[in-house]
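The following record pairs a protein chain with its ligand, beta-D-mannopyranose.
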Amino acid sequence: MDIKLINETAIPNLPWEEKPQDCSDIIWRYSQNPVIPRNSIPCANSIFNSAVVPFQDGFAGVFRVDDRARNMRLHAGFSKDGFHWELNPEPIRFQNDIEEIAEFQYGYDPRVCKIDGRYFITWCNGYDHKPTIGLAYTDDFRSFYQLENAFLPFNRNGVLFPRKINGNYMMLNRPSDGGHTPFGDIYISQSPDLTYWGKHRYVMGPSMPWESTKIGAGPTPIETDRGWLLIYHGVLTSCNGFVYSFSAALLDLDEPWKVRKRAREYLLSPQMPYECVGDVPNVTFPCASLVDADTGRIAIYYGCADTVTGLCFTTADDVIHWLDAHSQI
Ligand code: BMA
């Protein structure tokens, strides 16, 4: 390994497949994709844009389940190997002492971030039936405690950093509108206590054609000796609608609103049938990655066509060396 991972732990049982010999891409897909089918629990219409972390001797996660009434719900799930998942058939019921936000209206696109030994969940949360960033924590993926919404509506794609930076928690976020948002830049907001957010800074906006409509942060940023490795999605508007691809950037370690490298091209775009055909065609939407500190291997979980969950693989060395050669900055 050339790139050093900081504060990541070893995951000897990381779900992994070697790169096929005939593959020249930086990211390669799991041969058995989709790793989670649309109907692995009875209530589900679709299971996609979901977040997983190492937990005990395996893995746990928070999953976006759109049910057959088409409510958008969050479900906890567990896995021994990262490939085979058991989702709770009942959605998460957040415990909440704050009367004004206690009513769960809808929740989608969760992320899970471990900070100081506790798992924090962010998601797009319906408040006054408008999207903003919900925030909760759990220690065991069985009881979940909801905190204040981080921001006013309208906001989506809230992604925490796994440690405080210069004394503050940091969250990437993407101000939006109440619909399918035809714009979107990534900002960062800072908080001393996970309740009050400020010191908002612009990080980056759409630039290259593959991401020319809007962009949004994906999995928890990965700390490396070269900077924070951020995997993010970008959206192109075609004559047939939105196309969601994803790629990578490197953010400054101490001032993560400063972009040090940023890909010119996507790393993965909707090309397989399960990415191109589904409830919303042509969507690849990453929400989580597992990173093995010993090998630099990265397993990325991504939603496919708003219907199923896919898994793909890369390494920190591969992505960052590729970024060095393919950066627009
Ligand atoms: C975004 C979010 C995602 C979804 C994507 C494509 O606005 O709603 O959950 O995957 O649109 O439909």
